[in-house]
Amino acid sequence: YPRFESRFRFTEIIADSINIEQAYGTIGALLKDDPEIELNVDIRAPAYGGISVQDIRLALQANIAETITGTSDLRILREADYGFYHKADFNIDGESVSIRNTALSVLEEDVRLTLVRPFDVMTEGGAVRMDTLSIVSNAGATLDMLYNLDATDRSHVFVNASRFDIGVFQSAILDEVFVDGVFSGSIDADFTTADDLRISTTALLEDMVYGSLQLDLLDLQLQVLDERLTSSFHIKNNGETLFESEFDLPFMPGDPETFADEFFDRPVSGFMRLNRQEISEFSDFLMEMGLAEISGLVSMEMFLDGVAGGPDLSINFRMLNGRVS
Q1: 250-261 burial by CB neighbour count: b if 16+ within 10 A, else e?
Q2: Cα torsion for 86, 92, 98, 104, to the nearest 10°?
Q3: Distance (Å, whole) CA 62 – CA 39
Q4: pLDDT by residue (tens digit) across 260-318?
Q5: For residue 170, what is the enclosing H or E element?
Q6: Whole-angstrom Cα distance, residue 271 to residue 255?
Q7: Which helix (H) or strand (E) holds 287?
Q8: pTM of the model
Q9: How far apart are CA 134 and CA 66, in angstroms?
Q10: How many CB atoms lie within 10 A of CB 106?
């Protein structure tokens, strides 16, 4: 059978928020009754929205018949031996797409994240079914995820993590780590229509680092059930509570102008408290808000009561030895 093969190279690719310094590779085809296609592409210095991504290498093989079958090999490489790896087999039959993910791993200097077992993702007629994605690390961390969407637009999301280092994924894929820390918790949510929404979230982020800011613990508990949202959030450092809040509110997704009057008669309650802190410790956040030079001891309390249509809100804010420039 005749074979076609071509090489390509593009430089300085700009498309909306995507910037690519260079992309090159080969494309080949075996021209028989059911053609076979091969694509190999290297993408150098890609960026999305100003965020730099590690170099990408993709190898794709496909057999084009009544159904399209093939394999893919994706590598996002920080160095030759470190980065993100993914392999999959796929089958496309009209509107039905099935992907068997056979390998998924993240390799860093001291951490190895690997897939426990292959998992399938299938889509057909707008529905999505995903087996549980399970990842473990050599340090004992675990991560389980799944997502399903049925034909009635009912979505289910589940995430469960234990001692999962979020910086490892970022360093493998991105040019820098934006937020580091060790995550444990779970997300269990069902989404359908505005009157059928359920979310249950427990999240702990330990040893968080964001720029110069370091915190021991961020603890979030959040639940949406029966058209109410309850939450609890705490930030701790050096054994002390820096920030805490609790709220119990009526909640419905959608445009409040379309809600029945009864919604605005529902009770609201909650509080937010920032214990006395030197505000310059949060310099990275302040710089993002254009406040590069600000110092002083600040504390704040906020209390919420009443009903959704007419809440009672009181705020006490104190600043000692404050300076803003």
Answers
A1: bbbeeeeeeeee
A2: 0
A3: 9
A4: 999 999 999 999 999 988 877 776 666 666 665 677 888 999 999 999 999 999 999 98
A5: helix 166-173
A6: 25
A7: helix 283-288
A8: 0.83
A9: 33
A10: 22
